[in-house]
Queue: 2 jobs
Job 1
Amino acid sequence: MPGIEDLSVLRVEVAEGVATVTIDRPPVNAQNGVFRDEITRVFDVLHESEEVRAIVLTGAGKTFSAGADLRDRPDAAKRGAFPRHSRGVRAGFDCVMECGKPVIAAVNGAAIGAGCVLALVCDIILVAEDAFMSMTEVEVGLAGGVQHVLRHFGQSDARMFLYTARRLSGVELHRMRVASGCYPKAELLAVAQAMAKDIAGKAPLAVAAMKRAFTLCEYMPLHEGYRFEQTQTAALAKTEDTKEALAAFAEKRKPVFRGR
């Protein structure tokens, strides 16, 4: 796909409106500067790609992502090193949250630290039964991830998770409602891709508007958030896709959406 050639730690495949992005940086898919540059570039391109309507993010091998590559840490003695590094880390997560296409995390194995956060910034989380999430920052003298963990965990569970660095299995994550589904590892990717294909079959402008509402309204008061959603509905009513959907419903046929 134009704009995402020459990737070294990510693989991208597109089929039937679904892009599957695979982290492939052996041995444990750790995140370094190259990873952050590539994931930002990939998701910015997918954001603007008309042929992609939904995205699956997964890991190659036995690991989703073991987190930040500690060999890639900034030198605290160098002035400005940490702000520059932190900005890049944020961009590697923000590009997923800000992408206009829904992103499904297919957590196939360990998701640790920054790898856990990467799963948490996706729209939908699916996990393998033998996968796990863990935030190990307190074990290596670091901190971070609180804000993203609080978006998915209850207050007590979030504190337990972060203070203890405990591993939570796929089964536990599903029970705690952090993940929407838990599957045998051999079935996980196919399930995630089928769900993405289902999303890709919906009116793309409506799906994009829904994601905007999730992103913008999360911390808005109820009244202002719902009022914003209503402006999205009013704008969609004038689109060709919405008119096609209403016509297809009346004619009892499947709609053909063109993204306009």
Job 2
Amino acid sequence: MLPERGPDGRTAAIRRARRLVGTRTAWTAVGDGEFFCPHCGGDRNYQRLTGRRRFTVLGVPVLPRGVCAPTVECAACRGHFGTDVLDHPTTTRFSAMLRDAVHTVALAVLAAGGTCSRAALETAAAGVRAAGFEDCTEEQLAALVEALEEDTGRFSGEPCVAGLSIELHEALDPLAPHLAAPGRDSILLQGARIALADGPYTPAERDALATVGAALTICTDDVGRLLAAARTPS
């Protein structure tokens, strides 16, 4: 009988060869936790795996073929992903980061000169409550700003000092890569609304908002545009 020829024959020959020889990966779990699964689109449990490849004959491993890159396996969909997927915060962690960012920005703007104004405190408290601190009050924010001033030796109306700038960067730097541009703009505009609640921006408030914009990786020109837009009644 003549051997099979043509594309179909070659395909059949390849399939037979694959049944005879191939490679197999043996996975070993080395850790677990919770992550945001890009395939499922939500928080899921995962296992971190390491793997070793082996050359097989008739399905039997006979020779090592090296190690595989570490892999993250979703416990729900069984999808495999690179370990960089763990850099993305879970939904729960992202919500906490966003809440803390809004709270820190509110304190920074109030510390720049807004605590004497009831309107600024009310605007700040409303934004912080909307972000997730549902029990936040104007009195609590005023007390926190007063404690911040005592701790840093800084008075309302002074430029954003190093300590406050560091706090803003600590709250905003990890969040910025996971926010789309409208999300970053929204945080800056919330700070702008607090500053404008009691009148035009003061130099200290502009300085604080510029620090917020820098931490959110918003370019200087866009910071200026957004601060100007916030002054315009909608």
